[in-house]
Amino acid sequence: MLEKISFSEMGLRVQEPVIVDLMVRSLGNPDILDLAVGFTSNETLPTEEVSRALSLLAEKTASNPEYLQYGTNQGRPLLRELTANMIAGFANEKIPDLSHNNVLITNGSQQALYLAAQVLCNQGDILFVENPTYFVFLELLRGLGITAISMPTKENGRIDFDKLSLVIDELEEKGLKKRIKGAYFVSYFANPSSRSLPLEDKIAIGLTFKNKDLIIPIIEDAAYRNLYYKHPYAACSMLSLPELKDFPILYLGTYTKPLASGMKIGFGYCNHKEWLNKLLYVKGHHDFGSANFSQALIETFLKEGWFPHHLQRQHEHYGRKAASFHQALIDEKFHEMGWKWDKPEGGLMFWLRGPHHLDTSIGSEFCESCIEEGVLYVPGDLNIAERNPKNCIRAAIGTMPDNRLREAVHRLATVAKLFL
Amino acid sequence: MLEKISFSEMGLRVQEPVIVDLMVRSLGNPDILDLAVGFTSNETLPTEEVSRALSLLAEKTASNPEYLQYGTNQGRPLLRELTANMIAGFANEKIPDLSHNNVLITNGSQQALYLAAQVLCNQGDILFVENPTYFVFLELLRGLGITAISMPTKENGRIDFDKLSLVIDELEEKGLKKRIKGAYFVSYFANPSSRSLPLEDKIAIGLTFKNKDLIIPIIEDAAYRNLYYKHPYAACSMLSLPELKDFPILYLGTYTKPLASGMKIGFGYCNHKEWLNKLLYVKGHHDFGSANFSQALIETFLKEGWFPHHLQRQHEHYGRKAASFHQALIDEKFHEMGWKWDKPEGGLMFWLRGPHHLDTSIGSEFCESCIEEGVLYVPGDLNIAERNPKNCIRAAIGTMPDNRLREAVHRLATVAKLFL
Prior knowledge:
The structure is a homodimer.
Chain A: H1 9-13, H2 18-26, E1 33-34, H3 47-60, H4 77-88, E2 103-106, H5 108-120, E3 126-129, H6 135-144, E4 147-150, H7 161-173, E5 180-186, H8 199-211, E6 218-221, E7 249-254, E8 266-270, H9 273-286, H10 292-303, H11 307-331, E9 349-353, H12 365-373, E10 375-376, E11 378-379, E12 392-396, H13 402-417
Parallel strand pairs in A: 1-10, 3-4, 3-5, 5-6, 6-7
Antiparallel strand pairs in A: 2-8, 7-8, 9-12, 11-12
Helix pairs in contact in A: 3-10, 5-6, 5-9, 7-8, 11-13, 12-13
């Protein structure tokens, strides 16, 4: 009889993600169409390039195959250089003192989020997040005992800076202003909203926080920036904005989404030396360096100049899927049923807002009916710090082919009709 | 001018590992011989097998190249099954209810150590460790604010269970017994001691803790178990011992050391469902799954039956190096200079114990002289929770060829002669 364990506070706090429960329950239905899982498409994975990259590596390092050996904690220097240049290569970027020394390579950008939260926040500290925001980030914050607070939004989904100022005032009145340790933005073709953060909003972020004497670390999550359909989003990163030049900024990106999710390689670019060092020290404890092998392959991929062509294939693929999904929503009369959504210009997500009275949360009648009908989604409330409102749906379009995406929309519509 | 950051307690606590400072300072000397870095040998990396594995994967999954796609948080089922069977395949193993459901795949076994510490310990909690023990584990515990306490050892390096009972009594008197949250053992060809934990000691661990009514989680780190030179070490894992059947056990292993460190894939086998789940929940926050690509390659490697042959190559390689290093120590008169060491029967480490008066710590005259002479080692005190004694050295033999290993010993001897 195994002894019961007396777990740490954190051990007690962490629970099975509710989304796992949803997925496990849906396993009974082999025909289920999964709009919940944020995978990329298997169709556009760079299989040939990866094989070619390995051949090149094996050839070039025949006498010293360092690509299969441990690398460094911070990541391969050339990969970091190519990464810094890739970020700086977007239109309108003017990153001061651009250097590969500011880059760290991580196990997907997810790990960088975890590291950032660990070194910034004690239990009970506060991070500002968007509404909606990336739901796994909300989960990891809960695991660490950190409080996420949504920045208020306007009807059009953009941040309401006047109200944000009021929120800061309220926190100050409660003696909580000093617990605000940072702010998190998913700024390009966001998961889940599909929106991008306009330049003027980035500038307003700086002004608003500065006005409140709150020059806090900013995490800019640009995981989907490369996955535009037609054009990159025009706004530069926060790293390049003079209005934000006093702010410690950790800009995150990834090679998992646009290149190969199976390699799980992401990156951070940090303009603040001390913060970067803290991230690296904790990474040294997590794993002392992300897989050097994956890094070497991606480095080769970039160095050989294969990335632009590969991205073009991705852009066309996801652009076509998004158009098809959007059209299916129109054809299935979602507008007429009182639903709203933006047509994404990049990324893998649709953020569907149902009628106000609707409850899409786990265990809701709507959700149960969808499982019965054979379609899965991520309930919108999981993407919102306060778990409210509950009338939205995150639908990911990465994995399924067009015909199945259209069938998924049809099943959603079948259920939506019952909840008018 | 960038704003100063108000870091979390953890962010404040983490510091640059002292060993980094040592390495950076030695960069000035391009001829330095590095006995500090625990890398494996580039000579025995399975370059051909990895290329073949990728070809096989690409061929078999041509229409659905899932190996480049995200995997699951827990790890590939077949890899977990092959891993469970690999552990169970060692002589004398009788793991109750063996199942791949008890396996989790991690970013090296390092990540499993981190996860285990996170879910077991609050700040100020206590973990028992060996003396000496794996120094990166000590560092990560410091980062998390966890107190490591060395279990007392006898002159021959084995755990002194009578004294351990006294240590537990003392902690109880101080009201700290309830803060003891687990015990950590590196049980096969250990880093750094090169020793293995005898069966009778494993049994005594169970008896000693049980006598003190302290049935705490045990972490058994078997990272070097596959790297024996002639024969696997005979003792079974703690998972198989009836005397430990009440104890929650997390057994750790890795494919980095014996297969390819660049892939950074390790694993844990946990006999305690709730503990395993907690580890998985936090892993979901860290990265929601280790690189599926590396996992798929290693899975292929195992499935195709290439592992035994590859291991044999490793055994011969490291056995030869260890014999050569051992002989060099004898030839350079280390015994006569009052040094002691065990001749390893596996692993990558020599644990050299100098004369009692010697101080090998960072900044010591001995250490500085070694850097000047062109040889680096890990100071022994870094491998000991209490940073005492200071007369030992961890020498890793994985990377350098024989002639350089012998030259490194010669340089060490040159310095040792000055400190008789």
